[in-house]
Amino acid sequence: MIFKRVGEGRPYPEHGLTQRQWADLPPQQVRLDQLVTTKGTLDLATLLDAESTFFGDLFAHVVRWRDELYLEDGLHRALRAALQQRHLLHARIHPIPAGAS
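RESULT FIELD:
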């Protein structure tokens, strides 16, 4: 299994982080098998596009909420890592307190 679970949608509350705020979070290594996806599908063109990160963040965006790690952005990066037999992904992790709603 690549991911802990394949989800559909974001079960956590809206965090409102801008791209600049995401960029301020230091990248960390995350195991793919600890991630819950927030998308059930992926555009194959995005996965295969070598330039897919040209205008975006080089690191995946993960939200930590209620002891789960949700892959909010970067599904194509995670799948590329899995296809290359890597079990770790560099991601920026934003914690949302469990009591937030």
